[in-house]
C-alpha cells in the first residue's frame, strides 16, 4: 500500500518534470490503470503508481535519451537513430530507481514495457500499456472500441486489441516499428490462437 503523501510527492515531482499536457495525460493513465486493476484483479496501487510515472523521462531531450540508451545498452543503434520516441520507456526505470528507491521491480518493468511491450507481459504490464492508450484524454479514431471492451473481454484480449491498434497507428503514419514488436505481435497472436482453441474444446465438451 503506497503512502498517500508519497503518491502526492511523486505527483508533484512529475509535475515539475514534464509539460502540463503530459502531466494531465499521466494522471489519466494513473486513474485508468487503477480502474483496470480493480476490474481485472491486479494490484491497484502498483497500477496507479506505474501509470503516474510511466512517462517520467518523456521530457528529456532526444540527445540525452540516446546517450543514456547507448551507455547502458538499452537499444540497438537503429532504434536509437530511427525511433527515439520509444527510448523514454527504456531509460525511465534507471532514473526512477534512484529517485524513488521504494518502487518495486514489477512497477519499473511495467513502465519499461509501456511503449513496445514484451513477449511475457504481466497483468500489470498489460494494464499500464492499455491505460496509456485509452485514458480519457486520448482522442485516437479507434479508441472507442477499446474503451467499450473494458470489462467485456479478458485482459489478454484487451491487450491484443491495444497492441494491434498501436501497430496499425504506426503503419498508417509511415513510422518505423521497433524490431522486437514483430516478435511481440507474433507471440500475442499465437497465444490468442491457443486461447481460442482451448475455448472451442471446452465448448465441445459441454455440448
Ligand atoms: N512498437 C513501436 N515501435 C516504434 N515506435 C513506437 C512503438 N510503439 C510506440 N511507438 C512510438 O513511440 C512514441 C512514444 O510511445 P508511447 O510512449 O507509447 O506514446 P505517447 O508518447 O503517445 O504516450 C510514439 O511516438 C509512438 O508512436
Query: What is the helix content?
Result: over 70%
* Rounded average pLDDT: 95
**Unreliable parts:** none
How do the helices and strands follow one another from N- to C-terminus?
A: HHHHHHHHHHH
Question: Topology, please?
Answer:
Elements: H1 4-17, H2 20-40, H3 44-53, H4 62-71, H5 77-82, H6 87-99, H7 105-112, H8 123-134, H9 143-149, H10 155-172, H11 179-206
Helix pairs in contact: 2-3, 2-8, 3-7, 3-8, 4-6, 6-7, 7-8, 8-10, 10-11
The structure holds adenosine-5'-diphosphate.
Give an account of the 3D structure.
With 207 residues, the protein is mainly α. The chain has one domain (4-206): Hypothetical protein af1432 (Orthogonal Bundle). Helix content is 71%, strand content 0%. It has helices at residues 4-17, 20-40, 44-53, 62-71, 77-82, 87-99, 105-112, 123-134, 143-149, 155-172, 179-206. Helix 3 (44-53) crosses helix 7, helix 6 packs antiparallel against helix 7 (105-112) and helix 10 packs antiparallel against helix 11. The longest helix has 28 residues, at 179-206. It is globular, with a radius of gyration of 17 Å. The relative contact order is 0.11. Bound molecules: adenosine-5'-diphosphate (ADP). The site of adenosine-5'-diphosphate has 14 residues, from helix 10.
Amino acid at each position: 500500500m503506497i503512502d498517500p503523501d508519497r503518491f502526492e510527492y511523486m505527483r508533484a515531482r512529475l509535475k515539475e518534470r514534464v509539460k502540463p499536457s503530459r502531466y494531465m495525460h499521466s494522471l489519466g493513465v494513473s486513474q485508468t490503470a487503477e480502474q483496470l486493476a480493480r476490474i481485472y484483479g491486479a494490484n491497484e496501487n502498483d497500477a496507479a503508481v506505474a501509470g503516474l510515472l510511466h512517462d517520467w523521462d518523456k521530457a528529456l531531450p532526444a540527445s540525452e535519451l540516446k546517450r543514456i540508451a547507448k551507455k547502458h545498452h538499452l537499444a540497438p543503434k537503429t532504434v536509437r537513430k530511427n525511433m527515439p520516441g520509444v527510448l523514454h520507456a527504456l531509460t525511465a526505470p534507471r532514473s526512477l530507481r534512484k529517485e524513488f528507491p521504494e518502487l518495486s521491480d514489477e512497477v519499473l518493468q511495467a513502465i519499461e514495457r509501456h511503449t513496445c511491450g514484451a513477449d511475457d507481459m504481466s497483468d500489470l504490464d498489460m494494464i499500464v500499456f492499455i491505460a496509456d492508450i485509452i485514458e480519457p484524454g486520448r482522442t485516437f479514431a479507434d479508441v472507442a472500441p477499446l474503451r467499450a471492451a473494458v470489462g467485456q473481454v479478458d485482459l489478454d484480449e484487451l491487450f491484443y486489441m491495444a497492441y494491434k491498434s498501436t501497430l496499425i497507428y504506426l503503419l498508417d503514419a509511415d513510422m518505423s516499428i521497433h524490431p522486437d514488436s514483430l516478435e511481440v505481435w507474433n507471440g500475442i497472436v499465437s497465444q490468442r490462437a491457443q486461447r481460442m482453441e482451448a475455448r472451442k474444446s471446452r465448448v465441445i465438451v459441454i455440448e
